[in-house]
Amino acid sequence: MRRRTGRLLPATAAVFALGAALLIPQARASAEPARAPAPAPALAPASALAADPVADHCQSQCDDILPPGQNGNATLADILLHQVFGTRPAHSSDQLGRYDALVAGQSGLTDAKLNDFFNDASFGVPADQVESVTTPRPDVTITRDKRTGVPHIKGTTRYGTEFGAGYAAGQDRLWMMDLFRHIGRGELTSFAGGALANQGLEQQFWPSAPYTEAEYEAQIERIRTTEGERGELAMADAQAYVDGINAYRQQSKDGRYFPGEYVLTGKIDSITNVGEIQPFKITDLISIASVVGGQFGGGGGGEVQAALSLLAAQQKYGVVEGTRVWESFRQRDDPEAVLTIHDGTAFPYARRPAQPRGTALPDAGSVQAEQLVYDRTGSAGTGTRAPVRAPARLKPAQGIFDNGVIPQGSLSAKRGMSNALLVSGEHTASGNPVAVFGPQTGYFAPQLMMLQELQGPGISARGVSFAGVGMYVQMGRGQDYAWSATSSGQDITDTYAVELCEPDGSAPTKASAHYLFRSVCTPMEKLERLNSWKPSVADSTAAGSYRLQVRRTEYGMVTHRATIGGKPVAYTSLRTTYRHEADSIIGFQMLNDPSYTKDAASFQRAASNIDYAFNWFYADSRTAAYFNSGMNPVRAAGVDAALPVRAEQAYEWQSYDPVHNTAAYTPFAEHPQSAGQDYYISWNNRQAREYDTAGFGFGAVHRGDLLDGRVKRLVAQGGVTRASLTRAMAEAAVTDLRGEQVLPELLRVVRSAPVTDPALNTAVQQLETWRAAGAQRKETAPGSHTYGHSAAVRIMDAWWPRLVEAQFRPALGDGLYQALTASLPIDESPASSHGPTGAHSGSAFQYGWWGYVDKDLRQVLGDPVQAPTATTYCGGGGGLSTCRDTLLTTLKAAVAAPANTVYPGDENCSAGNQWCTDAIIHRALGGITHPTVNWQNRPTYQQVVEFPSHR
Fold it and tell me: Which helix H or strand E contains 198, and what residues bound it?
C-alpha cells in the first residue's frame, strides 16, 4: 500500500476630491496602484536580472495565457474610477483580448502567430522588457515584465524566494486570498457581508471541512513531523510565504495602497486609515487548500442520491430488473466511453462487486437532509436589504457586493474542469512531444489562480498557483519539462450509514445525537460557526445572524437522516483527504524541484504524492506521460463504492484509523498511468478500462470525444505542430457536443421517412447545414455578436430538453425520471443557465444525457451498441416510426419557441440575445469588472509547449 456593476455618481467631482486622500500616497496610482512600493521594499537595478541565468530548454517554444490579467488588486481610487469612468488598473485586463481573439484567429493559426494569442512563457525577462524590479528583502527580487506584469521571483536563499512569492501574491491577490480563507473557515458573512450568495458559499464549503483551530494546526504539524525532510522544508516554505504576504499586507496598509474593498466593506476608514487587515497565519493555507481541493480535486460522494434513484428504479421495475435499468444509466465502465489511456490497459478500482456486502439503502420516503442553519435572525435566509448612508465619495461603489462577493453558483460543487491534448514525438513535425493543456477553473476577476515564476535554491518553475497557496507552481513548466492537470473525480469519498442510539438505552429516533461506533454508543461531535453581519457600503444586506452546525462522527460528517428497515440511521460523508487538506504540498514541491523531476518516471512519482483526485500530464523533449493521483482507499471486499454502506468495522476502509483519518491506499502501480502513448486527451472523462466512475454521465458520448476525434485525426496525418494541436483544441472549444455527436442519429431517425411539414423540413435542413459546417457556436465575424447558423443553434437549444423528456419520461415514469435527473442534469449547453456551472461560465457539455440519447437512438436504428440501455425508450419501445413521431413532435414545439423564451435574458443580456446568453462574463470578486467575451469551452489557464532539448 502507498503511504497514506456599479452606479454613476450624479456629480463626478466627488471622485476627483479623493485625490489628496487616496491618490497622493501612491505614485503611479493610475498605472500600477496595488504595486506602488512602500518605503520598506527597495528598487533594484534592472541589470540584476541578468545574473545567474537559469537553463531554459524550451527555447521560446513555451507559451501560456491567464485572462483577464495579472493584477487582481485595486485601490479604492481604482474602484471608484472604474465605476464612474470604466478605467481599470494596469495589467488587470490585458490578457483577455488575446484569449478572446483565438475564437476568430484559430483557422489561420501558425506557430509563428501563437504569441498573438498567448504570452511568451520563457524564463526571465529581457532587459528591454523590464517594467519594475522590487526587492522586498535583500535576498529576493520581483521583476515584472511590461507586457503582462507577471512576477518573476528570484531568490538567493530559499526563504527569500518563498517570501517573494508571498509578497507578490499580496501585490496581486490580497483581497481574494482574504475572501477564500474566510470561505474555508465558514466565516464569509461576518467578514464580507450577509448577501444570500455569501451565506450560500459558507454553507457549501464549511460543512465538508469543518475544523477547529487546533485541528488546522495539527495538520501543519503532521506534515512537518511525518513527511521527513521534505515535510519540514514545505512548512518552512509555507511560513516564509505567509511572512511575505504579511509584509505586503502591512506595507500596503501603512502606505494606503491596499485593496479598496477593505474600505467598502467597513474594515478600514478611507479618511483616517483606522482599521486593520488581519494578519495571515499558516493555518489559513489549510483553510484555502480545503476550498481549492474540495472544488477541483474531490471525487465521489452523492451515494445517497444514487440510492434514491436506485430505489425509484426498483419500485417501478422490481429489484432485479430495476437494478439492471439503474446500472444501464449509471454506466460505471461503459465500453463505448472515451478513455485517456486507450491502449487497452486496465486499472481495476471501485468495481461493482458480484455479491455486494453491507449496502445500506434507505427505506422509501425516509431520507431527510441534515439541518445546517439554526437560529436565524434579521436577513438570514431572506437577503433583505437596508442600504447605509454612504459618503458621497463612496457612492459610485455602493452595492457592488449586494449579490455576493462571489456570485451565486460560481463555485458549484458539480463542475467540469480542464482539458489536455498531448502528442508523442513520433507523430510531431519536430520529433518532440507537443502539449496544449490547462485547468478550466471558471472565469473570475481576479482569477482564482495567478501566474508567477519562481527561481531559487531547489525551485525552478513558471506557471500558476491558486492564490493563497502559491508556495510552489502547481501547474506550469520547469527547465526542460511542463505539466498540467485535469480534475479526475474518481471515488475518494464514501457514504456510511451509522446506526443511531441513545446512551441510556432507550429507543433512538432520527434526531438522536449518538451513534454506534464499533458497538459503542458514541456522542456525535457538534461543530459550530456563529456568524453575524451588518450592512456596509459594498453589501446592503440588512443586519442578521445565524449559527451553522455540523455533526461529526468517526465516519465523517452527517449529511442525511433516514431509516433502514425501520431503524433510524444517519448518513455520513467520509473522504480520504479530510484532515489532509495540505498534504499534497509534498508533490508540488517535487514538481518544482529540478533535482527531483528529471523525466517522466520522476514526474509520475512526484504526482503520486498529490492526494487530491487529478489527472496529471507531462511533456519534455522525449516523452509525453500521464498519472492519475488521489488517496484511493482500499475498500473491504464486497463493498459497492457507488452506494451507501453500513458503518460497521467489516465494511470500513482497510486499516482505517479514525483519529487521523488514515487507511490503506491503493499502491502506485494501481493508479492509471502511461508514458509514450501515441497521444493523450482528457476533458474530465474516464481514465482507463475498469477504473470505474464515481458518478453518472460517462458513457458513449462525452465532451472528451470532441478532443479525441480531432487529435486522433492529427496523429494519423502526422507532422503535428503546436499550432495544429492548438487549433484542434480551439475548434472543439466552440463546438456544440450535441450537434457533433448526437444530431447525426437524430437526423437519421427524422429522415427515415419524408418530412412533409414544410416548416419542419426547413428546420431539419437548417440543422443538417449546421452539422455539416461543424456544429459550431461562433460569430459570423469578429464583433458581429451573431452566430453563424443561428437559427439551427436556437432550434437545438430549444429541442434538446424537450426531446430528452419526451424520449425517456413516459417509459421511466415521473418518479424515476426525476430521480435520475437529480443525479445527472439533462443539459449543460452554454445557454442552459440552469446547469450546474450556471450562466456565462464557459465550461459546458460536461453533464448531460447525450450518451443516453445516443445509445437509445442507435438501438432504435438497429445499429451495434455495446452495453445497451435496458430497454428502448424513444417512442415507448414502439420502434422507429413511433420514435420518429416523438422527435418530430418535440422538434415542432422547438421550432415554434421564440428566441426570447429560449434565451430569456438576465441582468447582463436582453431576452433573445443568443450570443450574449452564451458569452463569458468574468465574475467579479472585487470592484473591477471586465468586458463580455465570446463563449469558449476552454481552459482558463493554458499552456502550449514543445521542448526541443533536455538536460
Answer: helix 196-205
Chain position carrying cell 483526485: 613
Please give the Cα distance from 564 to 499 (Å, whole number).
9
Query: What phi and psi values does residue 681 have, to the nearest 5 degrees?
Result: -135, 150
Exposure on the CB side of residue 816, measured as CA atoms within 13 A: 20
Say what the pLDDT of residue 32 is: 34
Closest of 329, 321, 326, 297 to residue 310, by C-alpha = 326
pLDDT of residue 833: 64
Question: Coil, strand, or helix at residue 249?
Answer: helix
Q: DSSP letters of 128-161?
A: GGEEEEEEEETTEEEEEETTT--EEEEESSHHHH
- Identify the CA nearest to 606 among candidates 627, 591, 584, 625: 591
Q: Which residue has the higher pLDDT, 52 or 497?
A: 497
Q: Which amino acid is at 230?
A: R
> Cell digits for 859?
438501438
Residue 530 backbone zone (phi > 0: left; psi -120 to 50: alpha; other: beta): beta
Burial class of residue 563, CB neighbours in 10 A (0-12, 13-18, 19+): middle
Euclidean distance between CA atoms 673 and 346, whole angstroms: 10
Half-sphere exposure of 78 (CA within 13 A, CB side): 30
Of 180, 230, 247, the C-alpha closest to 209 is 180
Mean pLDDT of the chain: 92
**Taking phi first (over 0 means left), then psi (-120 to 50 degrees means alpha), and beta for anything else, what does residue 30 get?**
alpha
- Cα(443)–Cα(66) distance, integer angstroms: 10
| Virtual torsion, Cα 266, 270, 276, 279, nearest 10 deg | 100
Write down the pLDDT at residue 49: 37
| DSSP assignment string, 351-380 | PPPSS--SB-PPPTT--EEPP-EEEEEETT
Using an 8 Å Cβ cutoff, are 150 and 70 in contact? yes
Is-contact 358 636, C-beta < 8 A? Answer: yes
Q: Percentage helix, strand, coil, to 5, in the chain?
A: 35, 20, 45
The bridge status of strand 679-682 relative to strand 419-423 is antiparallel
Closest CA to 173 of 528, 449, 391: 449
E strand or H helix at 218 = helix 213-226
Q: What is the sign, positive or negative, of the torsion defined by CA atoms of 726, 449, 481, 455?
A: positive
Q: Give per-residue burial for 213-223: e unless 16+ CB within 10 Å, then b.
A: eeebebbbebb
Return the CA Rg of the chain: 27
End-to-end CA distance of the chain: give it in Å, rounded: 33
Q: What is the DSSP letter of 480?
A: S
Torsion of CA 205, 207, 212, 216, to 10 degrees: -40
Using omega within 30 degrees of 0 as the cis cutoff, is the peptide bond preceding 446 cis?
A: yes
Look at residues 597, 604, 596 and name the one whose alpha carbon lies nearest to residue 625. 604
Q: Could you give the CA distance from residue 344 to residue 340 in angstroms, rounded to a whole number?
A: 10
Could you report the per-residue pLDDT of 797-847, keeping only the tens digit for each?
A: 999 999 999 999 999 999 999 999 999 999 999 988 644 456 898 889 999
Q: What is the 3-state secondary structure (H, E, C) of 711-776?
A: HHHHHHHCCECHHHHHHHHHHHHCECHHHHHHHHHHHHHHCCCCCCCHHHHHHHHHHHHHHHCCCE
pLDDT in tens, 529-543: 999 999 999 999 999
In angstroms, the CA 305 to CA 413 distance is 15
Interval 369-386: pLDDT, tens: 999 999 999 999 998 999
**Is-contact 489 695, C-beta < 8 A?**
yes
How many Cβ atoms from other residues are within 10 Å of residue 142's Cβ? 26
**Pick from 158, 153, 334: which is nearest to 248 by CA?**
153
Question: How does DSSP classify residue 652?
Answer: S
pLDDT band at 397 (very low <50, low <70, confident <90, very high): very high
